[in-house]
Amino acid sequence: MAMPETQFAESHLVANTRADRIFDHMIAKLHSVPLETDPYCHYYGAGWFPDDFYADMLANFPDPKLYEPLNMRLYVRPDGESSRDQFHLTEDAIAKLPPKSQQVWRDLVDVVTRPEYRRATFAKLAPDLTKRFGISKDAVVDKACAYEVRLVRDTEDYKIKPHCDGLNKIVTTQFYLAPDMSQMDLGTSVYRRHKKLFGSSFEELKRFEFRPNSGYGFAVSDSRDKQSWHGRETLSNFKGVRNTLMVLFQQTSPNSYNGSPRTDKAAAEY
Ligand SMILES: [Fe+2]
Fold first, then answer.
1. In angstroms, what is the span from residue 49 Cα to ligand 1's centroid?
2. How many whole angstroms from 187 Cα to the centroid of ligand 1?
3. What domain of life is recorded for the organism (predicted)?
């Protein structure tokens, strides 16, 4: 069951100056990045986090051994190793990290699960969300959600074909945690599908630059009129790690973040 939002919001009443500063920075960025509406509502920008906090995140990634393979069937290299691993930033998982790392990730989760952050994100992407859910902009902004907040490590040979994201997702956001400008080509692509007599082809409209401290967000759609096609070609000629942070606004989630609502997959939508 969803936790009443008032109760959820009260957990943020404890003063947290650094989180407040990060929150203000991210909200200002969200307001300033341009909204693109073609072929679906999305945005991309750089400078999402204050510089000092961005450096703290890069210096405090969990030990790679603590990450779990996302899907050994889909994301696997010829040598049998996983090419996409993730670390769910739940309170239980954060508690296992070195003490100096814990507050960094707690602050991050605190900020991105604030109701005000969700409202600002949904307001930004409202044109597509109002259509998808058949509700007014005010109702979109007030729509409750569950979360997935996870760190992701992609390595050599990772790829994901054009897809829309499942409709359990409302909004997908991903932050690129690049150490420098040497991985600029590793961003996500936005596609338009062209239907053909037999099957379809995908036109790559743009590829986000994998810049330090950058990120994108989009409204998930998968209707006849609109589909949020995106993907990533094989990370070839690439050695190393592509670190990102996924913040997913969902209808249901098996995981709770900072007291956010938790539902099992079978729970009714709310
Ligand atoms: Fe996706």
1. 22
2. 12
3. Bacteria
In degrees rounded to 5, what are phi and psi of residue 56? -65, -40
Distance 267 CA to ligand 1 centre (A): 22
Q: 161 alpha carbon to ligand 1 midpoint, in Å?
A: 9
Neighbouring C-alpha atoms within 13 Å toward the C-beta of 255: 19
Question: Rounded to the nearest whole angstrom, what is the distance from the C-alpha of residue 175 to the centroid of ligand 1?
Answer: 13
Calculate how far, in angstroms, residue 53's C-alpha sits from the geometric centre of ligand 1: 26
What's the pTM? 0.89
What CATH number should be reported for the domain whose range is 17-250?
Answer: 2.60.120.620
What are the pLDDT digits (tens) for 137-166? 999 999 999 999 999 998 877 778 899 999
CA of 166 from ligand 1 middle (Å) equals 8
Q: What is the pLDDT of residues 208-234, one digit of tens each?
A: 999 999 999 999 999 999 999 999 887
SS3 for the chain is: CCCCHHHHHHCCCCCCHHHHHHHHHHHHHHHHCCCECCCCCEEEEECCCCHHHHHHHHHCCCCHHHCEECCCCCCECCCCCECEEEEECCHHHHCCCCHHHHHHHHHHHHHHCCHHHHHHHHHHCHHHHHHHHCCCHHHHHCCCCEEEEEEEEEECCCCEEEECCCCCEEEEEEEEECCCHHHHHHCCEEEEEEECCCCEEEEEEEECCCCEEEEEEEECCECCCCECCEEECCCCCCCCEEEEEEEEEECCCCCCCCCCCCCCCCCCCC
